[in-house]
Amino acid sequence: MAKKSAIEKNKRRTKLVAKFAAKREALKALTMNQSASMEERFRAQLQLAELPRNSAKVRIRNRCEVTGRPRAYYRKLKMSRIALRDLGNTGQVPGVVKSSW
Fold first, then answer.
1. SS3 of residue 73 by DSSP
2. Which pLDDT band, with edges at 50, 70 and 90, does 2 fall under?
3. How large is the average pLDDT for residues 9-38?
4. Hey, what domains does the chain have and what are their CATH numbers?
5. pLDDT at residue 48 tops 90
6. Cα 28 from Cα 55, distance rounded (Å)
7. Which PANTHER family did the record assign (predicted)?
8. Positive or negative, the Cα torsion across 86, 87, 89, 90?
9. 80 contacts 68 by C-beta, under 8 angstroms
10. What does the alpha-carbon distance between residue 16 and residue 63 come to, in Å, rounded to a whole number?
11. How many angstroms separate the Cα of 19 from the Cα of each of 12, 84, 85?
12. DSSP bridge partners of 79
């Protein structure tokens, strides 16, 4: 099980990303706009730098929904390999059976 503080920190980051997504997208579009003047683009870049760093999407860490483990994460299932194996062995994941030969 991951530390509760790490899990909560990631949840706060997710909320910040959702809060600033529209503003960040608009500022990024303005900085990439070649037809805008250099001053406008520079001003947009400065405003973008003043936004909280944790509002950037790349700072969110994929974590297991069950345990909070940050590594060996399956995106499709939103859980780690260890949690998947435990749930699969107990028969709680449909279509997953323990192999034997």
1. strand
2. confident
3. 95
4. 1-61 (1.10.287.1480), 63-95 (no CATH)
5. yes
6. 13
7. 30S RIBOSOMAL PROTEIN S14, SMALL RIBOSOMAL SUBUNIT PROTEIN US14M
8. positive
9. no
10. 17
11. 11, 32, 35
12. 74
CA distance 32 to 25: 11
Q: Which residues pair with 80 in a beta bridge?
A: 73
The helix or strand, by DSSP H or E, that contains position 79, with its residue range, turns out to be strand 79-80
- At 63 the three-state DSSP class reads coil
Residues, the chain, total?
101
Which structure tokens are listed for 53? Answer: 């760093």
CA angle 10, 13, 17 (to 5 degrees): 140
Phi, psi of 30 (to 5 degrees): -70, -40
